[in-house]
TrEMBL record, chain A:
Membrane topology: Multi-pass membrane protein
Keywords of the record: Amino-acid transport, Cell membrane, Membrane, Transmembrane, Transmembrane helix, Transport
GO molecular function: transmembrane transporter activity
PROSITE patterns linked: ABC_TM1
Subcellular location: Cell membrane
UniProt family annotation: Belongs to the binding-protein-dependent transport system permease family. HisMQ subfamily.
NCBIfam families in the record: HEQRo_perm_3TM (TIGR01726)
Protein's name in the database: ABC transporter permease
InterPro entries from the UniProt entry: AA_ABC_transptr_permease_3TM, ArtM/GltK/GlnP/TcyL/YhdX-like, MetI-like, MetI-like_sf
Top-level lineage group: Bacteria
Pfam families: BPD_transp_1 (PF00528)
ABC transmembrane type-1 domain mapped to chain residues: 17-214
GO terms for biological process, alphabetical: amino acid transport
Automatic annotation (TrEMBL), chain B:
Protein name: ABC-type polar-amino-acid transporter
Membrane topology: Peripheral membrane protein
Catalytic reactions on record: a polar amino acid(out) + ATP + H2O = a polar amino acid(in) + ADP + phosphate + H(+)
Localization: Cell membrane
Pfam families in the record: ABC_tran (PF00005)
Enzyme class: translocase
Domain of life: Bacteria
Domain ABC transporter per the UniProt entry, residue ranges: 18-252
Gene3D superfamilies: P-loop containing nucleotide triphosphate hydrolases
A Gene Ontology molecular function term of the record: ATP hydrolysis activity
Major localization class: membrane
UniProt entry keywords in alphabetical sequence: Amino-acid transport, ATP-binding, Cell membrane, Membrane, Nucleotide-binding, Transport
Amino acid sequence: MENYLSLFETYDVPAAFWVNIQLSFWAAIWALAIGTVLALFRISPIPSLQWFGAAYVNIFRNTPLTIILAFGFLGLFSVMQISLASDLNLSLFRIAIVGLALYHAAFVCEAIRSGVNTVPLGQAEAARAIGLSFLPAARLIILPQAFRGAIAPLGNVLIALIKNSTVAAAGSVATESSGLMKTMIEFRSDLVIPIFLTFALGFVILVIPIGLLTTWASRKLAVAR
Amino acid sequence: MTSEPQPAAPASSGTPLVSLRDVNKHFGDLHVLRNINLDVARGEVVVVIGPSGSGKSTLCRAINRLETIDDGEITIDGKVLPAEGKALTKLRADVGMVFQSFNLFAHKSILENVTLGPVKVRGMKGGEAKELAMSLLKRVGVDNQAQKLPAQLSGGQQQRVAIARALAMKPKVMLFDEPTSALDPEMINEVLDAMVALAREGMTMIVVTHEMGFARRAADRVIFMADGQIMEQATPEEFFTNPQSERAKDFLGKILSH
């Protein structure tokens, strides 16, 4: 037990989790923004936008996240020398956020689209009938109801995103939790199982409230019909 | 297409407010609108009846282009109904629509349902729109429900709100697509009464309905459709007492025998 507790003096586990929380937070905001725009493309009346939205979703949803993040580090950063900050680590951190956001935007788009499917067609027809064009109808009538119908699937995307933030290690964000776990296992192979369990528990603690919250909110905010 | 005489004259003269010329539409192999020609004069109340699948709802929905048409021309107040874009949006704002399933915006209060169009489409100030909305809600008798959500109202109340929502846009013509078909029987009259009042005030109305009583009470002209065609048109008096076509006789025989 003392052995185990000494781990926390040598290694800053909460700081590593904090990196994952930050990665997830920023990636979630960008993924939500990009995913909403993609969903608008997919339900828009313009064929080229529909095509773009569908192509984006199919490409990013079907590409392994590890490859996207490794491409961010090796392709964007090393080869193309694209830097998002003067500080090396901050730049890698931001590139990882971009990769996580682009990947999860595809899933956000599909979650919102499933929310749009909960909105009866008559709502859009009524919006058109009073003279609203596509964008105002989407903004005022369709999306507010679609988001409320999409809370649970969006929660699932957020849960996946938090866990997937550990893949940022593939994008050389060494400070995040799975990177730290690897280091700890390397130096304290006597405690492999407790170390695994510590990180597993950490993620369970992070994720469970999100599941509870989204279930509660999707009931609370459901549109009465 | 119809070779029947078309005896009913429009209620008033001048250019028609709504005009359909040689309108055709197919759903796949089904020819739902066959060469429809129809003029509706300003202030006229036209009731469209006919068996299910006769194309009467499609006709109604085509007039504000919720259904596209394959060929022909629809004009509203002299302007040809555009295919898409801002011009279509603008024209739709002038055409009120009441649906069978009410379609009130489910996440907005009754008041917001009525003010949304005037504020977002007409650019009316919030206070002014609220005043207008409350007066319209009062007119259809649901002003005391203004703060509730649509799901908290009965079907009849929701449909009356839908009428107020359409009126708030100050439309030139109102389309009713089977407005009482989804209602419990005891709520049908409250909606029909609101429609009759509207007709008496001189609103131009095109009403698809199965309510023959409404047709008798409020219609200037009855149009009978079957198989995507206008089979005959006449004043309600004439149509109900002396239908010309076999299809109309058959239809009336079926619905008026009880």
